[in-house]
Fold each of these.
Amino acid sequence: TEACLTAIDGAGALGAFVHHTPEIAREQAKAADARLQAGDAPSMCGIPLGIKDLFCTKGVPSQAASGILKGFKPEYESTVSQNLFDAGAVMLGKLNMDEFAMGSSNETSVYGNAVNPWRRGNDEMALTPGGSSGGSASAVSADLCLGATGTDTGGSIRQPAAFTGITGIKPTYGRCSRWGIVAFASSLDQAGPMTKSVRDAAIMLEAMCSHDPKDSTSADIPVPDFEAMLTGDIRGKKIGIPKEYHMDGMPEEIETHWTQGKDMLADAGAEIVDISLPHTKYALPAYYVIAPAEASSNLARYDGVRYGHRAKLAQGDGITEMYEKTRAEGFGAEVQRRVMIGTYVLSAGFYDAYYNRARKVRALIKKDFEDVFDAGIDAILTPATPSAAFELGRKSDDPVEMYLNDVFTVTVNLAGLPGIAVPTGLNRNGLPLGLQLIGRPWEEGDLLNTAYALE
Ligand code: GLN
């Protein structure tokens, strides 16, 4: 814990941590020591972590990287962070992210962007750590903590993990309680660990998962010992390679890297099978209807009354002006864009044309996956991202270009499946690349084991 606190102090330029909690960290570390001495060593005992700013942490600023939650200190702890603390983990502080987890580069944060530790040369442009869990990725990659919590609505754990050379898993929808995590798109949001290795991910994920009556979508199914399932034996497993993930214009290095991953799994004894997920091309448009629709509804609660920021009002202003001014000041541009898109697609005149159609597409995408799993496929191998980490500022003026980053990850959230990004090598410029494995629902243990063979 002390080593991490020192490293964090020296790494301010990364913009990874946005609230520091050294007192809490030292107190929790002492308690962990005491537990160890008493012969009680839970799985996360004394492990220093960073917590994404989207998680409510009791008495500690939890702003979802938004101006509208300025000064908000929750009275309660999220179930996932509480589970980690119960397992002995230590909180070093809160981590940077895109505002309300909307973004793929950490550039929509009210705190300013986080930086990817993989390139900080003087004349080279700094790179994004990805988003929305950019602070988590940057912190783990730069050894400021041993692991971090992330959340993933459309790729926000897997894309930043791939950009920074670390491991990140989004479990099956319902594995981790959403209680106390600021809601973005409730039918897609899941928490998960971001770590240096697959083994660490297995240990941390197990500590995060639980059935929680406070989240009606939390699943009441047993959480296995994921670490014990890491045998490295994947002989006879059927790995699907979906043809629709060969996207037009995808850089050569991504294709090559994907082939190398395929060869590694084949060498380990897996059977490689070409498969088709025919509705893949509709995933991104469906996601960018459904996610903003749910966001516009979830974000209605930020009204200047209940939490955080309230605009200064002029003489004669009423409640409508208070809402309007507060929300105009408190939300950044990307969040406002999502609220507008979401409100539009949910409006009476356009509901059927957009929102209902997107829901139907979502069902078809889910069915595509069910069909291949029913045909005996154990896991699906794809690239995690369409490119290596890009320069900060390069895509921030073009929302559609930014949204294209999520092309390989959003399908997994729409179908509620577990997906993991594993670092599998470097490109010509020495930047990390990652591959994604997608598994059957509730079979994170199996998925982690396949990832372990790829690591
Ligand atoms: N980049 C995607 C978006 O902006 C996904 C974000 C996320 O998973 N939280 O919506």
Amino acid sequence: MGVFEKRIDTFLTEYNNLREKNLYYYLQQVDQLDGAHVWIGGRRMVMFSSYSYLGLLKHPKVQERAREALDRFGTGTHGVRILAGTTAAHVECEQRIASFLGTEDAIAYSSGYVANLSTISTLLGRHDVVITDKLSHASIIDGCVLSSAEFQRFKHNDLDDLRRLLKAAADKFEGKLVIVDAVYSMDGDVCPLPELVALCREYGAWLMVDEAHSLGVLGTTGHGIIEYFGMSPQDVEMLSGSLSKTLPAVGGFVAGRHDLIQFLRHQARGFVFSAALPPAAVAAVTASLDVIEEDPSLIAAVRRNIQRFVGGLNEMGYDTLNTKSCVIPIIIGKPEPTLELTSRLHRDGMFVSPILHPAVPMNTCRLRANVTAGHTDEDIDFALDLLRRHGKDMAIIK
Ligand code: PMP
């Protein structure tokens, strides 16, 4: 067997093993979506794995604006943005992202992954250093690896560790960039933004914050991490994010100063050499940002639902770490009970994702449940009841 065949075979052995035991929960075919419910294999399930945090997927105003753009511009564009693919819908969307976040400008990429990958690798050169949190998203890590800069990581949310690295980097590198997630995608906790800003100022570093899981969720009116801490958008050099979570489309963005964004529009390879987003997708984003600002009841609903779900879990004795967001880790520990509990919940109609090592540290295997504004009290109580019954039966809780 050749080296590639061996690699593929090792993976497939593990994959088939999970399938045989009925413990494979990935790539499930969803036949229908309806608010917080999905139809899988002919069964209606309550969805706790959706990133549509404000329940905007299929919102009538979003659907209408997407349809208008589809009729006006068609399903795609003429190609890459820089040559012939920039439509009025793209320009409007970028301006709306910037106005929503309070920055001078914004650039839309084909995904949140590409936004991070391309921006980080474009900005950094070989005499620079990039320092990121150990739990930063894969797209940030990959951007750092792709860049020619020195790549360093600090312990999760540990300001002393970051200070140590910044101090050591002080005279050694030309440019310094620190990158964090606003909300961490496996733990749901929040970065200590005021302290990070102060540290970056002290050491002359730029700060980039990924708002993938905070936009529309954090802050009294859902404007994200800046609003959550009562800071100014100008305190951070770059905000990045996804257009496929709270904003129910596809794509990613970076927001910041106009000069920086113009630089990226002409230099970022993931933008220059990759096709434009479909006009309907960017129109859906613009409409969603309008809806978030017009309808504060959505944010109130998601807050209420987070409290109901996390409160219920903690009362039963489940550890949900330090979540402050729609990402709710339910810590189980070892992989076997995590998969067993997932299996029972799926069987009884709750769609939730198991997260195992190496995605998370050893013995912190968990279910990752996402609460959204689309859940009703009944949906949440249904899930809590299942978690109580099976958790007790499996001796995970008392
Ligand atoms: N950043 C974070 C923190 C994420 O969680 C994700 C997606 N899970 C991304 C970036 C990538 O976004 P996208 O799915 O739009 O590529």
